[in-house]
Design goal:
The protein is of the alpha/beta class and 228 residues long. The protein has a single domain (1-227), classed as 3-Layer(aba) Sandwich (Rossmann fold), CATH 3.40.50. The protein is built from 10 helices and 5 strands. Strands 2-1-3-4-5 form a 5-stranded parallel beta sheet, sandwiched between helices. The chain starts with a helix and ends in an 8-residue tail after the last helix. GO terms for molecular function: carbohydrate derivative binding; isomerase activity. Keywords: Isomerase. InterPro entries: SIS_dom (IPR001347), SIS_dom_sf (IPR046348), SIS_GmhA/DiaA_subfam (IPR050099).
Length: 228
């Protein structure tokens, strides 16, 4: 795991910088950072949203059918269903002042691909957090792949199947959740170096946290219903 994190950090330095620039562009335009994923990639979406030290201007895209806790087999079916992305975007979709970040290790199912296509059609840039190796090995279910639809690709380097142990015949210790979180937080670190005034949440369990967050709720809750 340690080696995988180091490799992801080294191999994505340039792309992390480009992703951070897109996020800062969104901040300067008072836009929103839309984040999305399906299945276990929703763990990465949770990492982006209402997180101590995280951006307050995050709009998480979500549908209950995509979460394995609401039905394991049905969550796989949902991300393979063409049209679900359009349903999710009915409430709010990214526009030219926004940016979309999609987490998908395989990046071949209709849901993540159609999200990216819709965002780009609306003028919003797309950041993909995916694995080129996994994409190459997966069956194309959407005609194109998330990587092909993205403006910036953060490559986790995860092997097809996600498992990492034992090394010679991996069958456990999936790495995508760890690497997704690491790359996202690498982007945040770069964002803060470029924009010291980035709107960041404080922990509600530290002195003054609730007070500091109150202004962020007032600013973003009208545009991000999940902050209610």
């Amino acid at each position: 795991m340690t080696e995988a994190v180091r490799a992801a950090e080294t191999n994505n330095a340039e792309q992390v910088a480009k992703a951070a620039e897109l996020v800062v562009r969104t901040l300067r335009a008072d836009g929103l950072v839309f984040t999305a994923g399906a299945g276990h990639s929703l763990a990465a979406v949770a990492e982006t949203f209402y997180r101590a030290g995280g951006l307050a201007c995050v709009y998480p895209l979500y549908h209950p059918q995509l979460l394995p806790l609401h039905g394991a087999q049905s969550s796989t079916t949902a991300e393979r269903r063409s049209g679900l992305a359009a349903e999710v975007l009915e409430q709010r979709a990214p526009g030219p002042d926004d940016v979309l970040v999609v987490f998908s290790t395989s990046g071949v199912n209709p849901y993540p691909v159609e999200l990216a296509q819709a965002a780009r059609a609306a003028g919003a840039p797309v950041i993909a957090v995916s694995s080129r190796q996994s994409v190459a090995a997966a069956p194309r279910r959407a005609g194109r792949t998330l990587i092909e639809e993205a403006d910036v690709v953060l490559d986790t380097g995860v092997r097809p199947g996600d498992a990492s142990f034992p090394v010679d015949a991996p069958r456990t210790a999936a790495l995508s959740t760890i690497l997704n979180a690491h790359l996202w937080n690498s982007v945040l670190a770069k964002v803060v170096t470029l924009a010291e005034d980035a709107p960041l949440w404080r922990s509600s369990n530290v002195e003054g946290g609730d007070e500091a967050n109150a202004a962020l709720f007032a600013r973003y809750q009208p545009r991000v219903p999940a902050l209610a």
